[in-house]
Amino acid sequence: MLTLPDSLRDAFKEPMGPVTTDADTLLAAAAETREEYGRPDAPVVAVGDVVTYHLREAGRVPDIALVDGKTEREAVRTEVSEALAAGREKRVTVENPAATLTVALLEALADALADPDPVTIEVDGEEDLAALPAILASPDGASVVYGQPGEGMVRVEVSPESRERARELFEGLDGDVDGAFDALGASSGSDSTEEEPR
Predict the structure, then answer these.
(1) Are strands 119-125 and 90-96 parallel, antiparallel or unpaired?
(2) Contact, 44 vs 55, CB < 8 A?
(3) Do the Cβ atoms of 52 and 80 come closer than 8 Å?
(4) How many CA atoms lie within 13 A of 155 on its CB side?
(5) 37 and 140 Cβ atoms separated by less than 8 Å
(6) Could you tell me if 162 and 16 are in contact, meaning their C-beta atoms sit under 8 angstroms apart?
(7) Rounded to a whole number, what is the largest CA-CA distance in the chain?
(8) pLDDT in single tens digits along all 198 residues of the chain
(9) Which of 56, 73, 158, 160 is the most buried (most CB within 10 A)?
(10) Could you tell me if 118 and 67 are in contact, meaning their C-beta atoms sit under 8 angstroms apart?
(11) Pairing state of beta strands 64-67 and 119-125?
């Protein structure tokens, strides 16, 4: 449905939030964000196998995890894949090629955000762009965490500001952007969260 044009590749390399290697610090910041927004149920969304692994090792099963069995295009270490496979949360499998966002991934993400229980989305392909729709569709106060190659984990505090930045990047992708917003269940306007309780 959407693909990453070469002209945007550099923009996607810039971290959208602070980078850390300490999962405990990251989770403490996520808890502060939930409290700040008065949203104790705001989800933690993990994009990537290694990020998901580190959060689980720190005692927090992400509300939504998107994994593809790879890190920096190489297979993840056995201890990571085994730890993730041992999780008991609901699992959904979708196809999503590299540098792409498919309807299947967007719809699975929207469904997972509506599910009160943790969901792991197993991606056949790559989940490299999934942080964007996760930021767009998550409520204020949520945290979207993804890996920054060679540096650590990036935590994006979901807010009107971060959602606007994600929207600008999302709208720069090639393909049916309006259809993608529909599949995600997110508004394409900048007022997408006006009706949400705070």
Answers:
(1) parallel
(2) yes
(3) no
(4) 23
(5) yes
(6) yes
(7) 44
(8) 899 998 888 888 889 999 999 999 999 999 999 999 999 999 999 999 999 999 999 999 999 999 999 887 788 899 999 999 988 999 999 999 999 999 999 999 999 999 999 999 999 999 989 999 999 999 999 999 999 988 999 999 999 999 999 999 999 999 999 999 999 987 665 443 333 333
(9) 158
(10) no
(11) parallel
Exposed/middle/buried for residue 117 (C-beta within 10 Å: 0-12, 13-18, 19+)? exposed
124: three-class secondary structure by DSSP: strand
Task: Enter the tokens of residue 112.
Answer: 């997972």
Whole-prediction pTM value? 0.91
Strands 70-71 and 74-75 come out as antiparallel
Q: Distance between CA 45 and CA 176 in Å, rounded?
A: 24
Check residue 172 and report its DSSP letter: T
Q: Do 118 and 62 form a contact (C-beta atoms < 8 A)?
A: yes
- Please tell me whether residue 171 adopts helix, strand or coil conformation: helix
Q: Are 153 and 20 in contact (CB under 8 A)?
A: yes
Q: What is the DSSP string of 21-88?
A: S-HHHHHHHHHHHHHHHT-TT--EEEESHHHHHHHHHTT---SEEEE-SEETTEEPPHHHHHHHHT--
Instruction: For the chain, count helices (H), then strands (E).
Output: 7, 12
